Automatic annotation (TrEMBL):
One Gene Ontology molecular-function label: kinase activity
Enzyme Commission number(s) of this protein: 2.7.4.9
Enzyme type, top EC level: transferase
Protein name as annotated: Thymidylate kinase
Domain Thymidylate kinase-like: start-end pairs: 20-202
């Protein structure tokens, strides 16, 4: 008679998926860089990416062009633009899963909530409106994108974010696009982001005051859970 020991289940290690969200110029990229450095100092392996993937995906390339006035009325179509952003992420999903299997932490500069916030803000809808529901159906239910462990909202007043985006335009010769130059859109986005965080849209949120320099050490602790 075969004697069996306790069954061992091999569970593949899965890293934590952390998303940084916020207005244009809020300081997301700067925070991703700071957090990556701090987590690596703590001995964790970190992968990071930013959406849209302008140089890696044709949908993101089209987004950039439409945001600078090309492709006729494409930029004016909220759903059309949102589908392009979503297809960029769908194309990245396998790499994202591979990164999650290989690293302790995967940090993303923007993800699905950017589509929800900007689209709903452009349409004048709230978080419980049709647009946010549609984004969820498309990207979460239909495309099956990985769910973030934490969505971190880097919250700064819209005028501060605009000032930072202007500063970056001068120092890095990066032209501001249609969304970045639209102050009332940024104001509405700030409200949408606050509501997404408040309602815990899709996964847990943490709101971080981005007016001053964020405390990377404390945030690294929150990121690791
Ligand atoms: N805490 C901060 N205080 C002051 N300036 C900051 C801070 N964080 C970032 N900046 C500066 O603000 C500008 C915008 O920062 P960054 O590129 O990180 O923003 P972003 O949110 O990634 O922007 P976008 O979404 O438009 O790509 C940069 O010039 C950056 O050096
Ligand atoms: C990923 C994503 C982005 N947006 C918006 C947000 C910005 O205004 C622009 C470009 O993004 P960047 O960070 O300035 O490069 O696009 C969006 O509406 N939906 C999305 O999914």
């Amino acid at each position: 008679m075969a004697v069996r020991g306790p069954r061992l289940r091999i569970v593949p290690a899965v890293g934590r998926l952390i998303v940084i969200e916020g207005l244009d110029g809020a300081g997301k990229r700067t925070l991703v860089d700071g957090l990556t450095a701090r987590l690596r100092e703590r001995g964790r392996s970190v992968a990071h990416a930013a959406f849209p993937r302008y140089t890696a995906d044709v949908h993101a390339e089209l987004v950039a062009e439409a945001l600078h006035g090309e492709h006729g009325d494409l930029g004016a179509s909220v759903h059309g633009m949102a589908v392009l952003y979503a297809l960029d992420r769908r194309g990245a999903a396998d790499d994202l899963r591979a990164d999650l299997a290989a690293h302790d932490v995967v940090l993303l500069d923007r993800y699905v909530a950017s589509n929800a916030a900007y689209g709903a803000a452009r349409l004048g809808q709230d978080v419980d409106g049709d647009f946010v529901r549609w984004v969820r159906e498309l990207e979460v239910e239909r495309f099956g994108l990985p769910r973030p462990d934490l969505q971190l909202l880097l919250q700064v007043p819209a005028d501060v974010a605009a000032g930072r985006a202007e500063h970056r335009e001068r120092t890095e010769t990066r032209r501001r696009d249609r969304f970045e130059s639209d102050s009332s859109l940024q104001q509405r986005c700030a409200e949408l982001y606050a509501r997404l965080a408040e309602t815990g849209w899709w996964s847990p949120w943490l709101v971080v005051d981005g007016s001053a320099r964020p405390d990377h050490e404390a945030l690294a602790g929150r990121v690791l859970g």
